[in-house]
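Quick question: what would this complex look like in 3D?
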Amino acid sequence: DVKVTQSSRYLVKRTGEKVFLECVQDMDHENMFWYRQDPGLGLRLIYFSYDVKMKEKGDIPEGYSVSREKKERFSLILESASTNQTSMYLCASIKNTIYFGEGSWLTVV
Amino acid sequence: AQSVTQPDIHITVSEGASLELRCNYSYGATPYLFWYVQSPGQGLQLLLKYFSGDTLVQGIKGFEAEFKRSQSSFNLRKPSVHWSDAAEYFCAVGAYTGNQFYFGTGTSLTVIP
């Protein structure tokens, strides 16, 4: 079975902190995505990556960066967390079909 | 422009009743269509997908969906809803290359006894 693992399920961070959200997939997929999910807004694409060290901006990249040093791992970085980044973050690994992780709930106080 | 519309934000049905969740899309190329379900606090689980062939596709948990090209629709159905089906449902459209996917804003399903 396909597996996408987001190691941090629930985080509480202070404004201004640097936050790392990690995502690992075990399917040798090239395409990995980070989405943000907010009530009434659905899923919005933050960044995606086609391959190691490759990254592309999605629809809402401001305030975020990403890192893909290994094929199986795609990290989302909040350089200086702000309260408007409180949200559910979903990682996905894609090959014809989207496989999602369980999500990371981030609260910034 | 590519987009997915789920016109019903919230639906309430009685347990045992039939269900239809609507999804309309706008997509420039041959669409690949998906339905996902999300239980509270969880990620999204794939219910079913349509790539080509038979326009009526069967998925997990007794769900099915029908692709109607002329109506640009991909509605999800279940003949008899169970209380455990209460969740958020998302429709998505994308390309075979998997580079871009577009999601609807979701339909929240409540099941009453």
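Answer marked as accepted. The mean pLDDT of chain B is 91.
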